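Please, structure for the following, as tokens.
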Amino acid sequence: MYCVLFRSPSGRSGSFGRVSADTHFRLAIAAPVRSSKEPCRNDCERDTVVRTRNTGSHLAEGTCASGADRESGPVRHRRVIYVPGYDPFHARRYRELYRKESRAQAEVSGYEIDIASQGQFDPYRWQVRATIEGAPVTAEIAVLGWSDIVKASMERGPLQTYTQAARTFWIYARSGALGAVLRLRKGPAIAAIYPLVALLLQLALALAIAAFIGWAISRIAPGWLSLAGLLAVPPVLQWFKRHDRAILARYLMHNYAFSASLGGANPPELEARIAAFAEVVADALASDADEVLVVGHSSGAHLAVSILADLIRSGRVHAGCPPLSLLTLGEVIPMVSFLPTATRLRADLHFLSASDALTWVDVTAPGDGCAFALCDPASVSGVAPPGQRGPLILSAAFSRTLSAARWKALRWRFFRLHFQYLCAFDRPGDYDYFRITAGPQTLAQRFAHRRSTPSAIRRPVSRHRSMAT
């Protein structure tokens, strides 16, 4: 099984530490990429292919070993590729997070799991060996990085930061996206407004300090020298920038500004990276893995949607490939899809939610104030197709799956909670991140008994519904 994971911006308290400056994009060029015309392995020659994909399985006429055979049997081998969202952290942070939290979950759930490097130490790749539900499974996990793009977008001086914040707020407000988000979920809307408020308070404090210094100078010098107090403003703002890790105001502002910079369209450098990531997934589909699982967390979810939509449209996902699955966690897709020029993303949502070439499960939690909890991203964006097949909308139900003491400790730590999907649960229900990524069942098999939560939100909210052709 190949598991592709997309990760989001917010830091994990106590686990991620300081932001590293040496994160580079690597894995999209790490392995040889097959031609788009090259068939998936285990594909046999036949004229007619029959797919029945209600649960993500591949069924093909003929007797060769194909995706259908691997779908019906247990998963023995999985390859995991983690592609972060808007996140400046180095890949080793994800490796250590997986190591720490998988061990904690194994102690709670009573299974065995361990990770090791593949040959030489490589923070971008590691291997998981697990015995879960009585079955031995190996998973190769890799991180596909685009943090170089993220860090470049965050390099702003004080004046540029405030100009960018004002422009971003204006784009969301004028386009109606902010109003639509408020009508849908107040948590993400508050998270969007918070950076601007925090930055304005910082500026007000810097100006207050400058005014005090100016007043003090005027008491002993000519009045015009009091203007020298304004020299205190840049250092004060710089101090807030250095300590942004505590409040994440600048980080969140840069995140929203990146999405809004082209009104919801992907910048050219991100489009190029999406194309490279699609080649990595295509290479996984050509392997002997028992499943290719793509996991998109937070802002990485919309990257996952576009990557897989591109891949399926190109005809590179077919009956001879391993089963393809998509798991989106804590998604914030409407923050992009509600913007006026997000026509590419809306087209991808429309296409993927109708596709029978994959299984798509979306997991969020009402306790996660940063996510669009229980919202069907295609439906709320107004682009759900007739006969929509996915995603299956499930709740991680933090208030029930975490112990009372742990829920109390984490309830108001919003950014930490936003990463709980990637962490251990005290009382795990159907959702167990490590069973999904290192267990013996495909995503389709694991959730075959589930229906979407009755609380799923599917009403169209976005006023912008045009789609790229």
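Strands lie at 2-7, 77-84, 112-116, 125-132, 135-143, 292-297, 324-329, 359-364, 392-395. Residues 155-260 form one domain.
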